[in-house]
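note to self: dont lose this again. the chain is below, predicted strucutre after it. 297 aa total, dont forget to put it in the shared folder this time
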Amino acid sequence: MRNESRIGAGMAVASMLCVQLGLAVSVGLIDRIGAEGAAWLRLFWAGVLMLVIVRPRRSHFSRTALRYGVALGVVTAGVTMLFMAAVERLPLGTASALEFLGPLGVAVLRGGAGTRTWPVLAGAGVLLLTQPWSGGADPVGVAFALAAACCWAAYILLTQRVGDEVTGIGGLAISMPVAALTATVVAGPGVLDRITPELFLLGIGLAVLLPVVPFTLELLALRRLDAGAFGTLMALEPAFAMLIGLVALGQVPDVLAVAGIGLVVAAGIGAERGGARAVSGPDGPLERDELAVEVAQ
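---
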């Protein structure tokens, strides 16, 4: 069970790095095609790539899987577009810290009594990262980041359900095309005239970096971690965002923000030590190794 937890945590960490690198690259596109254009470009190609790679068939999915997959697609479009709108107005680290309130809420609501310490510690780190008492943050950007947080909480829960319903990465073949269609309906009319052939092709690489690779890793991670542990582990994301913002975008954090990084990293390490998902058996929850023995017998 500990091994499953570590594998899931490793996948989640790799996903976070891809996300932040992808966002840092996308920030450079905002001046050219706007936040909604940068979000649409990534989602469009992600939907196309998943259709080409997976080649889904209707017979492969149950009605439940389709229902959850469509919901996940809408939420994916929401979190992507809202967060890009927040990044347009806030430093990357601050926007990520506010967005983290979504998975933090999942961790608090879904975690057991023994996991409650880590969300509290992470929450203190988020406060130090955002420093709401300073009043310097753009209120519209904060609103977009909080809306993205709500979508991210729903994304975690729906991703776990889709991962349970569909084998491999088949669930993404439902959700990503739906996300692309949703983004096209919402933002397409306003951005298509700003997309040049060069930018259009650049979107392929951006889509691989974010969201194709990280969303695939998160889907696989949520098969190994419970939603509470995964949500707390996401505490590492604001720290990664601040580091990427410093290195790639020249956004220098202050002392309190650095202290916040230490708290969220500590919370992420604590979440990694537990939280492997148990699978229900006839006599109660089974660890994955115990399930394998039962199947073999």
